[in-house]
């Protein structure tokens, strides 16, 4: 508990920043509303003004991650190598924010929390905007490819080497060849 009086004009975002930092440092298991409050320098009761419980905080974090992924997808130029660029963007996001990435794709959106599910759909729509000629099945495949490669790298199951873009392009080419 904080020993100094403290008032925060943007408490929810301060709590999310603290939660995100704790998530990256210690992982989801060690994250609690009390630890987030301590890290943010507020009372242990303060987080309850914005989050009913840890699950609600995790849902907000997962949604935040999807929004950032959406921004990343939306800021990429549409080029001939758009699929490679998008998969590369997925990988860069996962490497920069491994704890958040793990949370986003492990948080069960079926818990009734609509925010992560909506934010995840928006990311998929941004992907669709960048790959306009892709069918729904091909779009799902692109999403799965980006997520799968990122998960393998984040969990240290795969090392793409020095030229990751070339590696990603080779995987995409091999998958396209195998499916034709």
UniProtKB/TrEMBL annotation:
It holds the Pfam family TetR_N. PROSITE patterns: HTH_TETR_2. Residues 32-51 bind DNA. One of its GO terms (molecular function) is DNA-binding transcription factor activity. Keywords: DNA-binding, Transcription, Transcription regulation. Residues 9-69 form the HTH tetR-type domain. InterPro entries: Homeodomain-like_sf (IPR009057), HTH-type_TetR-like_transc_reg (IPR050109), HTH_TetR (IPR001647), MT1864/Rv1816-like_C (IPR025996), Tet_transcr_reg_TetR-rel_C_sf (IPR036271). PANTHER family: HTH-TYPE TRANSCRIPTIONAL REGULATOR RUTR, TETR-FAMILY REGULATORY PROTEIN. This is HTH tetR-type domain-containing protein. It comes from Nonomuraea glycinis.
